[in-house]
Amino acid sequence: MQESSVRNIQILYFARVKEKLNYSIEPLSLPESIHTISDLKRLLAQRGESWSEIFSADKQLRAAVNHELVSDEYLIQDKDEVGFFPPVSGG
Amino acid sequence: MIKVDIQTQDFDICTELAWMRQATDNCGAIASFVGLVRGKDASNIVDFIELEHYPVMAEKSITHMAEMAMQRWPLTAVRVIHRVGKLPAGAQIVLVLTASEHRKAAFAACEFVMDYLKAEAPFWKKEILPAGEHWVEAKASDELAKQAWLIE
User: Does A15 touch chain B (CB under 8 A)?
Assistant: First the structure.
């Protein structure tokens, strides 16, 4: 049996994603069924239409954990800071 | 030596060049790049842009790019300033200075840092036009320019 553990994370949203969701930052206590970034995206996509458009339909969406880009397979840890944003356009 | 700043205020290239000359030893060449807000994009008049960034990650990612450049070329210093906030047409956005004993390394490293910055540093531009505002899309050509450095 897998050991259950509390994982409290912080999620940050940027640019187009932030505007569309009308959310910039939120703390979240992860349900036990959520392990990877991919799981988290599936969970967030259930929150409503704009959320679903971002987290299930937008293939361009990027994710970073603790300020490093990560793939959908990344295993989320307690106290991780997860950022979601569109492809960058600075410089 | 690497120095990276993300700031709302403008920068002065002469001040930064002077800093680089005194901060580096045996520097024979400094290459510079300054990115500006274009007043026109395609046929649209652009009044302002708004630049958003991911704090901490932006600094970290640019510092990492500068470190990669220092490993790849014999550089003595890299200086990067990137502005954020609301910037009018014609305003300075980004500065990259690279110092080396000889010019070729400085030129190449300056382009390398800019290509990586455009493709990977977490900044987002929104154009404010007379008719409304919109987010600037990432360009496939920016990703290709970065990838070209992986082949060389």
Answer: yes
> How distant, in Å, are the alpha carbons of B53, B63, B144 from that of B134?
16, 29, 24
Q: Which of B100, B107, B99, B83 is nearest to B35 (CA)?
A: B83
The answer to whether the CB of B84 falls within 8 A of the CB of B121 is no
Q: Which amino acid is at B64?
A: H
Distance in angstroms (rounded) separating the CA atoms of residues B138 and A27: 29
CB contact (8 A) between residue A64 and residue B56: no
Distances (CA, A) of B5 to A18, A68, A85, B16, B119: 24, 19, 22, 12, 18
Touching check for A65 and chain B: CB below 8 Å? no
ipTM: 0.91
Query: Which tokens go with B94?
Result: 């980004």
Distance CA B51, CA B7 (A): 11
The predicted-structure confidence for A4-41, as pLDDT tens digits, reads as follows 578 999 999 999 999 999 999 999 999 999 999 999 99
pTM of the model: 0.94
* Partners of residue A83 in chain B, C-beta under 8 Å: 54, 57, 122
User: Rounded to a whole number, what is the distance in Å from the CA of B61 to chain A's nearest CA?
Assistant: 8
Distance between CA atoms of residues A64 and A44, nearest Å: 16
The conformation of residue B52, written as its DSSP 8-state character, comes to: E
Instruction: Give alpha helix (H) positions in chain B.
Output: 13-23, 57-72, 103-120, 140-151
Q: Give the pLDDT score at A57.
A: 82
